[in-house]
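Task card 7
Instruction: Convert sequence to structure tokens.
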Amino acid sequence: MAEDSIIETRDLTKEFSGFTAVSGVNLRIRRNTIHALIGPNGAGKTTCFNLITGFLRPTRGQVLYDGRDITALPPAEVARLGMVRSFQISAVFGKLSVLDNVIVALQRKHGLSFQFWRPSSVLNVFIAQAQSLIDDVGLSDYAGIPAGELSYGRKRALEIATTLALDPPMILLDEPMAGMGAEDTSKITDLIRTVAKNRTILMVEHNLSVVADLSDTITVLEGGQVLAEGPYDQVSTNPAVIDAYMGGAHG
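Output:
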């Protein structure tokens, strides 16, 4: 495994009753970069995410994280190693305040249940950390508001805050811009860029302007296989990509 890689897949393949969803995918995700998976519907992007994070077992192939073979590990163990799939593992509790949601995540990181009757000295540490994370994602004005009352974009920001509370070196984002308007998309794009300064991000995203703006490397999947890989300028001018993905989606 290359020293600058945090995730590597080798011949990653998943078959479902004769249908091959992912076939021989070799990915190398460089540390402290933003790497995007794109492709048309049914290209195998979500299956790859599920294989990498342990939600599915491959038919064959390997997944390595930081040099360790994690192919057979369950999702909870993968997360404990520091690879967190945001918007799935992170939980937002609608009736709890924004601040309390982040405190829950901080207590989870320390192996504690959600208990406000702990000594104030312990709780105060969590409050200060939670407030700092809320500030980081632009939710300072909403700290006391029930999470269920937030707009869609602000809920996504809160989910990122709860993910960051776990302090993972690796975050996987599954369509972070789905269902967002232009204003929320811009805010979350800026937030992801900030979060990625000292972390590795792997994301599936259909919004090509976001992919172009954020990604260091893009892998294009088509029919469960890698069609092309490289920076956006290179990938976006690849005739096979234009035909299979960009042309079909935007032509």
